[in-house]
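Box 3.1 A note on notation
Throughout this textbook, protein chains are presented in two layers. The first layer is the amino acid sequence; the second is a token string describing backbone geometry. Keep the layers aligned when reading.
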Amino acid sequence: MKKRLIELLWTRSFKYSKEPIFKLASGAMSQFYINCKPVTLDPEGMYLIGHLVFNEIRQSGCTGVGGLTFGADPIAVATAFASYLEKKPIKAFSIRKEQKDHGVIKWIEGDMSTGEKVVIIDDVVTTGGSTIKAVERARAQGLEVIQVVTLVDRQEGGMENIKQHIKNISAIVTRDDLMSWMDAYEINR
């Protein structure tokens, strides 16, 4: 499953340049660009991601999985769906970028209650800023964050930044995995 996911990410989500030509959300320039949405919103991608993330968290004891909208949303939904298929249901939730200002004022959408153990997910980690924001907002809503899982680690220091807030973190795919796929592809061309 992981090999196929790397192939999908490499062909649909990953761009590389010898020169840093890609502007990141942080404003920094990079040689690498990763937009996971073409894969996280694809039926095969959802299937692979849901099962891989569920396998990463299945022993955690969590009751919910989610992160900052929009990057985490399809991953959370795919993981919740895979968990149900495996007869170990885990709920999906979404963390707003802006706090809801009407009705019940809250950061989180989904059927989560104070004290529940959750896993925060993200599609791509560069500096870790959005993941840390998601951890903080989940905690502010009374959830117990027990783990962080990212789909892709760009290997630019973000995982180390996240570790300052929570120790149990992992990535399904790394930039090195994607570069290895590129190297193998170039050799076989």
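The helical segments are 2-12, 37-40, 43-57, 73-85, 129-140, 158-163, 175-188. The chain has one domain: 2-188.
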